[in-house]
């Protein structure tokens, strides 16, 4: 079975934390021309209180054809090369990584007021580290309405979450402690904090 059980992550708080920290989703959608999926990159915002992701995409994005269908959202967390030197040669060369996969149902938003609400939530969230913060209300309503005609607004309702955190869980606590310490010394704090 792949991924092995010891690399699977089931803690919903850890899964949601990764999605919040790395909100750019690779979204796999069905492709009518082949057995493979289309993939598009979309920043999404998860609302735990409603258990939905929100986003907007260009009108010609394949996601706009997926209303009421299932798609897969894939989020990649931090990753790095694992050198045997990180563990005093007690591991083989490998790669450390974290990822979350969410199966979700697509709902295309039609309501003008819901579109306005989603745009406001997204911009407020992603602008919060900027000083001064840009505000969607700085754009006149008539200009926003024209802009919204070029976009599709989407809610993704999750039906299944899974995580794959490959962080040397198959190694002894002593070896994992050495790896974590080496990661911190190499300034790889983001992945070290997952240990």
What tags apply to this protein structure?
elongated; eight-stranded antiparallel β-sheet; single chain; 5 helices; 195 residues; alpha+beta
Description:
- The protein has 195 residues and is an alpha+beta fold.
- The chain contains five helices and eight strands, in the order E-H-E-E-E-E-E-E-H-H-E-H-H.
- Strands 1, 2, 3, 4, 5, 6, 7 and 8 form an eight-stranded antiparallel β-sheet that branches.
- The protein is elongated, with a radius of gyration of 20 Å.
- The two termini are 23 Å apart.
- The mean pLDDT is 92.
Mean pLDDT over all positions: 92
Strand content: 35-45%
Provide the helix percentage: 25-40%
Structural class: alpha+beta
User: What are the low-pLDDT stretches, counting only 5+ consecutive residues below 50?
Assistant: none
Span of the ends, CA to CA: 23 Å
Helical stretch count? Answer: 5
Number of strands: 8
Topology as H/E string? EHEEEEEEHHEHH
Compact summary:
By secondary structure, this protein is an alpha+beta fold.
